[in-house]
Design brief:
The complex is a heterodimer of chains A (about 475) and B (about 240). Chain A has 16 helices and 11 strands. In chain A, β2 (about 95-110) and β3 form a beta hairpin. Chain A has about 475 residues and is α+β, with helices and mostly antiparallel strands. In chain A, α2 (about 15-55) crosses α14, α2 (about 15-55) runs antiparallel to α15 and α12 packs parallel to α15 (about 430-455). Chain B has one domain (about 30-60, about 75-235): P-loop containing nucleotide triphosphate hydrolases (Rossmann fold, 3-Layer(aba) Sandwich), CATH 3.40.50. The two termini of chain B are about 30 Å apart. In chain B, strands 6-7-8-3-9-10 form a 6-stranded mixed beta sheet, with helices on both faces. Chain B is of the alpha/beta class and about 240 residues long. Chains A and B meet through α1, α13, α14 and α16 of A and α2 and α3 of B.
């Protein structure tokens, strides 16, 4: 009769109590795993969103991240095409890369002078095809296809704006923006606010003469200071107003083709960009890629003070959100751990009271105190192991059901609902860690009663009624 | 030469702030291969003495020497090992492990004594046959009568070839006929296996079967005598 067999049989003596304990631990583990899978999924979803929009790494002027928003043009990267070619041709980096693409950030004032309104905006000049490639990144296999940029296939002077910009510029009607309130005042007389002739002339001058006519939407003027500080204007055909999920961004964002953005800022000068976005196949490659990029910058681009920034640095909210979920997960895990601790402890204490005479008998037969400790510890660990197996199985099953139920939810900062999924299968670290954690807590909570049982006076135990 | 020697044994219990004497100045030699009864009224100290002999408890002072081994020199683990090898216990309430079958209950002390599996099997079946329960080997205690349970307990006590079997009121929870059968069985086993039985009992049937009787009253031995072997049981239980 091995101690394990005896422990297993003892657990079946009070089936209802053992089952209740097992159920409490199973549900606890299941809750931890499902929440862990849910928050893990959010973290990966968030990471996917950031990597799709801004890549894993960005090469920028060393000071751009801290000071660049005040004057992006002053922090441009010279000879960025060579930098991109060098990266793409590098034998170390090449196998890791999916996309390397330039972007140019700019600040300016967007105006709808037909309505007599304007507002400051933060623009981004992009290479549309490469941005669309960026958006295909799906290393964590999220369901659904990535949406293409609305700029795709648009004229060279095409642009997209946030819905907040559309609202302020009173373009909701032209751009078919839903739920867009109109200002109720009399200062809407368009005849009084036609585009000033000087601005109109500037806008026309900056247009590419070969550009085709706008396909649809509304026309705005974007006024920006060029690299020399002089004003420049681009006339843009807005193809769509996008809901960007965050009001602050909606109220300020404008996206346009890189070439037009460069013309606006650098005119006939050598065009520059404010960042070279590097997207990798896997996030885990980031440290190696970063190290290699820094080596390349030091060796081949030492004339420019360039730096490599990762997506977490560029998007501080990523760390804040993942940190928040980690804290909630930790709190729930501690809570469940405490419940398990007391449930198993209580079960073991009850068992000791009921089996006091038996403990005395075993000791009388020659079982050492350590043997009694092992017996009760074994019972606790067995309960923990059984709960771990059932908890893991049920969590996987429930996760499968949830993932295939078609449920959706609206994450903060999103403009569209996303599928409600929990990532449990494949998260071996979490699965193993939670199961081992449960076992440890069960063992720990059985240890104290086991110690008490082993310390019982034999004669008192045999006399126990 | 006696195997069990008890020298100036005292045992006191603490009840709150009061120290209560349970045994006082016990001097006793018990011969091997005998049926010895510790007898006396309830609270006289016979079970306390049996517990001390069985190394389940430690005396306040004095010494017990069993098979030449002074028990006071053994630590807790050594005492456990000593019990596993040298002593078998039979309890008033049988104290079988309810989750184990009759076979497994008898086997358990052999496992503690690290006896190889094949030897264990043979020994268990031999003992179950000797107590007349070979056909009940797979029955759990809950499926056995009181008498059958006590038979399993006797087989368990004898399993490790212990030379000393200590029985605390072994017939107290049995009816008279069953009690008599159990006494007869123990007597038979004692004779066949040449082991020493020490009982705590005030059952006249047990006294009637005993070779030696030690009478205890108020924690002191008042009389120790060799009995006239079952001829005057009423005299023994005075």
């Amino acid at each position: 009769m091995k101690i394990l067999t005896l422990a297993a049989r003892n657990l079946t003596r009070n089936r209802r109590r053992s089952l209740a304990t097992l159920l409490a631990m199973t549900i606890g583990l299941m809750a931890v795993l499902l929440f862990g899978g849910y928050s893990g999924n959010i973290n990966l979803g968030l990471q996917t969103g950031f990597v799709r929009s801004s890549g894993h790494l960005q090469i920028q002027h060393r000071d751009y991240f801290l000071f660049g928003s005040g004057n992006p043009a002053a922090y441009g990267i010279v000879d960025y095409q060579r930098l991109i070619r060098t990266i793409e041709a590098d034998p170390v980096l090449r196998p890791m890369l999916t996309v390397v693409t330039p972007t140019l950030s700019l600040g300016g004032i967007a105006g709808n002078f037909n309505a007599g309104v304007s507002r400051t905006v933060l623009g981004s000049g992009v290479v549309v095809d490469e941005q669309n490639q960026l958006r295909q990144w799906n290393d964590y296999r999220f369901p659904g296809a990535a949406r293409l940029l609305p700029l795709t296939g648009s004229a060279p002077n095409g642009a997209t704006i946030g819905t907040g910009v559309a609202r302020v510029l009173q373009l909701c009607g032209e751009l078919n923006v839903k739920h867009c309130p109109q200002p109720a005042h009399e200062a809407m007389d368009a005849s009084k606010t036609a585009t000033p002739t000087d601005l109109a002339a500037l806008g026309e001058a900056s247009q590419n003469p070969a550009a085709p006519a706008a396909q649809a939407g509304a026309r705005i003027e974007l006024l920006a200071a060029n690299a020399h500080g002089a004003p420049n204007v681009a006339a843009l055909d807005v193809v769509k107003a996008e809901q960007l999920g965050v009001k602050e961004l909606d109220d300020i964002a404008i996206t346009l083709h890189l070439r037009l953005a460069q013309q606006l800022i650098y005119g006939q000068d050598t065009p520059k960009v404010t960042a070279v976005v590097v997207q990798l196949k896997h996030t885990a490659q980031m440290p190696a890629a970063r190290e290699r990029l820094e080596t390349l910058l030091r060796s081949q681009f030492k004339a420019q003070p360039l730096a490599v920034q990762d997506f977490a640095t560029l998007n501080p909210s990523y760390g804040q959100i993942t940190g928040m979920f980690a804290a909630i997960f930790g709190f729930i895990a501690i809570l469940i751990g405490a419940i398990v601790l007391f449930t198993v402890g209580n079960t073991m204490n009850m068992a000791i009271v009921e089996r006091t005479v038996e403990i005395g008998t075993l000791r009388a037969m020659g079982l050492r105190a350590r043997g009694i400790r092992q017996l009760f510890l074994c019972e606790g660990v067995l309960l923990g192991a059984a709960s771990a197996v059932t908890g893991l199985s049920l969590a996987l099953l429930l996760a499968y059901v949830i993932n295939h139920s078609g449920l959706t939810w609206m994450p903060p900062g999103n403009s569209e609902p996303v599928a409600l999924t929990v990532r449990v299968w494949g998260e071996w670290g979490m699965l193993l860690g939670s199961a081992l954690g449960l076992l440890l807590v069960a063992a720990f909570s059985a240890w104290w009663p086991a110690r008490r049982a082993s310390a019982l006076n034999i004669v008192d135990a045999l006399r126990h009624a | 030469m006696s195997i069990l020697q008890i020298r100036q044994l005292n045992k006191r219990y603490r009840l709150d702030d009061i120290s209560v004497p349970a045994l006082t100045d016990i001097q006793l030699d018990i011969q091997p291969n005998r049926f010895t009864v510790l007898s006396g009224p309830s609270g006289s100290g016979k079970t306390t003495l049996l517990n001390l002999i069985g190394a389940l408890d430690r005396p306040t002072s004095g010494e017990i020497i069993l098979n030449g081994q002074p028990l006071s020199r053994l630590n807790d683990d050594q005492l456990a090992d000593f019990r596993a090898r040298q002593i078998g216990f039979i309890f008033q309430n049988f104290n079988l492990l309810p989750v184990l079958s009759a076979y497994e209950n008898v086997e358990y002390p052999l496992i503690l004594a690290k006896v190889p599996p094949q030897v264990r099997r043979n020994r268990v079946m031999e003992l179950l046959a000797a107590v007349g329960l070979a056909d009940k080997a797979q029955h759990r205690p809950g499926q056995l009568s009181g008498g059958q349970r006590q038979r399993v307990a006797i087989a368990r006590a004898l399993a490790t070839n212990a030379q000393w079997i200590l029985a605390d009121e072994p017939t107290a929870n049995l009816d008279q006929a069953t009690g008599a059968a159990i006494i007869a069985l123990m007597r038979q086993m004692q004779h066949d296996l040449q082991v020493s039985f020490i009982f705590s009992s005030h059952d006249p049937q047990v006294l009637a079967a005993a070779d030696e009787a030690v009478f205890i009253r108020d924690g002191r031995i008042v009389e120790s005598r060799t009995l006239a072997s079952q001829t005057h049981p009423e005299r023994a239980y005075a």
